[in-house]
Amino acid sequence: MKWLNYVFIYLMCFAFIARTEAAAVKKILGSSDSTIVQGLNIIPRPFKAETNGEFFHFNKTTVLLLPPGTPLSSGHIYGQYVNLIAGQPLLVKKHAGSNYIKLSIDPLLVPSNEGYVLEVRNNFIAVTGHDDAGLFYGLQSLTQLADFGEKPGIMGCKIDDHPRFAHRGALLDVSRHLFPVAAIEKWINILALYKINTFQWHLTDDQGWRIEIKKYPKLQTISAYRDETLIGHKKELPHVFDGKRYGGYYTQDEVKQIVQYAADRHITVIPEIEMPGHALAALAAYPELGCTGGPYKTATFWGIFNDVYCPGNEQTFTFLQNVLDEVLTLFPSKYIHIGGDECPKVRWHECPKCQKLMLDNHLKNENELQTYFVTRIEKYLNSKGRQIIGWDEILEGGLSPGATVMSWTGESGGIAAASQHHDVIMTPEKYVYMDYYQSLYAGEQTAAGGYLPLSKIYNYEPIPPVLNTDEEKYIKGVQANVWSEYLDSEQKAEYMMFPRIFALSEIAWSDKTQRNYNDFLARLRKQMPALKKMGLKPANVFDEITYTVNKNPDGKTVIDLASTSPGAIIHYTTDGSGPGINSAVCNNGVVVDTDEIIKAVVFSNGQPIGRTFQKRVMFHKGVGKKVTMVSQPVANFNPGDPSALVNGIEGSNLYNDGQWFGFGGADLEAVVDLGTLQPIKTIGTDILKYHWQKMWEPTNLTFLVSTDGISYTPVYSQQDFPVNGINTIKAELKDIKARFVKIIAINKGTIPEGEYGAGGKAMLMVDELFIY
Ligand SMILES: [Zn+2]
After folding, report:
1. What are the beta bridge partners of residue 575?
2. CB atoms < 10 A from the CB of 93, how many?
3. Strand 116-120 relative to strand 153-161: parallel, antiparallel, unpaired?
């Protein structure tokens, strides 16, 4: 389906929505009271906007005035958008009549790059852009406002809008799984509608090389294919494979088509050609480019592989420069992304050629060898008039001079780079990685791991508060990334991307003071039917039930259930039955005074919406009691209050659900004071063992008890934690009375060689110390 069809359907859907609201609504957008926008339903939220009570109707005399210099043809892309909005081909004229739409470019009237001013009155629409992009974005706003009813038109308004950040990005990985050209164009079209202006195309990786390079035909015949693919999540051991050859690549003609398609929509496509790591697919075809000489095979599962390009071999640079030469002819972007992430140094350490190169160039260690590698490629690209972007690991051996850093492992890489006055794009994994789960409900399609709901991406602030005003200006933008390990279909990819990318679009475009999550949701809900009619299959889980754990004055646990769905009534049960309209209503939380499973469903207008929420709550002796913790959990895995260790809720295998306590390289020692001497029959806890996430079981776990809080007696210890996932430890005790319960878990310390994150600190993950 062509983009015109998508936009057409989109407009059809907005018709109904806009018509039902057009008449009475007069709300000011951009006022600080964050009123819910009812009339101007635009994402990302404009800088300033207000309705004026007028309404523009298209009719047979409506003419289109294009900017001076534009060919007087409605076939121009502006004309195409306008014709769709109007529902008819408009006459293109040089002079206005009584009913017209005028497009113009005026950098004096609109001072900000990519900005626009849009005015809709009874007899005209005027869209003025600072530049081409600004005019295009004015048309995108108009598209979102269009009423495509019997009398097509637009609600009267005035909008003055411009973006906050110059880089508003989305990354698509096509190495792990690739998607049809038509799907990519469909997504680019939607990204443009939401004012995303950068599409990073992750074209090469261990699991497949996806771009045709004519000089190296084996990249097409060997590197583009893998023998088979892992089934299920990589954390599930042993690994099982599907036995089916998988692969393909984009021809240079297809690449050109996509780059042009995006350019027409003011989206720059930045290619990512990974180096020095994530290179296994290329090495499979050209083994002489690796340190050992191979043989190598295109990877069939997900992870980090030790075999990387050998910088000690001059042929490596010849190969990469030849590859880049062809890439540069296809991508006019100023920036070329060279990867630079997750490059193990073990092969370089053992390779005589690499070691000689280090000696000859006075490089102290393999990190400096990586910097040498990146700097050489940077110089090459600079000589061709391009700049490099790399992931934050390019900081490891010192930044090469003009590099832009994409901060993905966290915010610290971005902070370090900005303080060294390098440009930065913020893409921190835990806030903007759209391969994370977006729902804590059971039954989600397999995802990489972790939990990133729409609200979390929306509330992310790309400028870290520690930066001073001088450093802040190096933060050029923000980007959300879709990695495709578990996205083996177009539909699965869409589910992960949409609507979360719209939250990214708003944090990237809208002024910080304009951001309001409930307001965003109100606009999003209105756009969902239109998106679905465009053939998109977005996730619709953002109104699902979330919970908070509280305590009432009697010491009982109160689980508060909430949904952002307007007018939602939450019905729940605790007897295992499915909640219905006659089940209890959760008004003031669910009071828990025994172990139970809460099941809940959101009802709206008497009808259930969405899936069933389910949560097990433990009501043990420790719940609500004082906890003293000797060591501090790391920021990423800190529920905030030590008492969350005994809040009755266990951490789930979506590890960043806010329940787990994580200790990086450090031990856990915590004491629960039960207040009085009590008989204790069971002490237990959960340990999360996910080596693929650097989460390691303790070398020893001990429970101790005390009557006075001074002298402790060990009552149980354990050294084996066989489950790859959550290990539940339960010590059954006899004739024990105690007031204090202590848990000591000894951290693994350093991650062993050969494991993910080798040499780094092991993360000890513990939650819910339960005492019965
Ligand atoms: Zn080597």
Report:
1. 597
2. 14
3. antiparallel
- Considering only CA atoms, give the Rg of the chain: 29
Q: Model confidence over 563-617: pLDDT tens digits?
A: 999 999 999 999 999 999 999 999 989 999 899 999 999 999 999 999 999 999 9
Q: State residue 294 phi and psi, 5-degree precision.
A: 85, -160
State CA 357 to chain mean position distance: 39
**Ligand 1 geometric centre to CA of 459 (Å):** 44
Which residue did the predictor score with more confidence, 224 or 31?
Answer: 224
Average pLDDT over residues 429-456: 95
Q: At what angle do helices 252-264 and 181-193 cross, to 10 degrees?
A: 20
Asked if residues 522 and 185 have their Cβ atoms less than 8 Å apart, the reply is no
Nearest to 671 by CA among 642, 648, 640: 642
Q: Where are the beta strands (DSSP E) in 618-660?
A: 626-629
Residue type, 286: Y
Query: Which H/E stretch holds residue 533?
Result: helix 517-533
**Gap from CA of 390 to ligand 1 centroid (Å):** 21
Beta partners for 187? none
Residues with CB under 5 A from ligand 1 (ion): 291, 310, 312, 351, 353-354
CA distances from 100 to 8, 103, 127, 135 (A): 21, 10, 11, 16
Measure CA 571 to chain center: 31
Amino acid at 649: I
| Catalytic residue positions, numbered | 205, 278, 342
Distance CA 328, CA 271 (A): 9
The neighbouring-strand residues paired with 157 are 51, 120
Instruction: Please enumerate in sequence order all residues whose Cβ is within 8 A of that of 151, keeping only pairs 6 or more positions apart, or say none.
Output: 57, 58
Distance (Å, rounded) from C-alpha 618 to C-alpha 613? Answer: 17
Quote the ligand 1 centre to 307 CA distance (angstroms): 10
What number is the average pLDDT over the span 345-351? Answer: 97
- Sequence-distant (6+) residues with CB within 8 A of 688 are 651, 653, 655, 660, 695, 725, 726, 727, 765, 766, 767
Please identify which residue in the block is written with the tokens 């809940």.
600
